[in-house]
Design a protein that fits this description.
With about 170 residues, this protein is mainly alpha-helical. About 75% of the residues lie in helices and about 0% in strands.
């Protein structure tokens, strides 16, 4: 496993900027990090499964995997059923403070902070925490992958922890 990790780190350092540049040209800004993360995760799994010597040209492998990831993103995006954010926000007003385990001022501050996030992240956050939807269900509804939803939620939780402190976000 150490060999796979070392190979991954070396390849990552050598290819990240170029792959990110390509991804930013081909995909929406708010989705680029998720697409690239999925691509590198796939590469790492392949290294663990097949070994470092099985992938002769890691850069070509990554570009091919990223192209497939972007194509899948657009296929899912074309199929997804758009849920208007306003409908989610209106329904979110019906949520009780007790359901969120926060007091009213904290909920207001949280929602003000969430308005700075991309619309897709807001939707995922409200659907996951406000409605208790599962990651897979959110991913299907929004035309993305489970790992993309999970990464966005992890990133927004990290921002919220920084803003509000550890005890405010569970």
């Amino acid at each position: 496993m150490n060999d796979a990790t070392e190979t991954f780190n070396t390849v990552y350092d050598a290819t990240f900027r170029e792959l990110m540049r390509y991804c930013l040209l081909k995909a929406p800004l708010e989705d680029a990090h998720d697409l690239l993360q999925n691509t590198y995760a796939q590469f790492y799994r392949a290294l663990l499964k097949k070994g470092s010597s099985a992938i002769r040209d890691p850069k070509a492998y990554l570009f091919t995997a990223l192209k497939h990831e972007i194509a899948a993103f657009y296929r899912f995006r074309a199929k997804r059923k758009e849920i208007p954010l306003e409908a989610i926000e209106d329904a979110a007003d019906d949520l009780s403070v007790e359901d969120l385990s926060l007091d009213g001022a904290a909920v207001d501050a949280l929602m003000r902070h969430m308005r700075d996030e991309p619309e897709a992240t807001q939707r995922m956050f409200i659907l996951y925490y406000g409605y208790g939807m599962k990651l897979g269900d959110i991913a299907r509804e929004m035309g993305t992958t489970d790992s993309a939803v999970k990464s966005r939620l992890v990133r927004v939780r990290k921002k919220l922890r920084t803003t509000f402190g550890e005890e405010s976000v569970q």
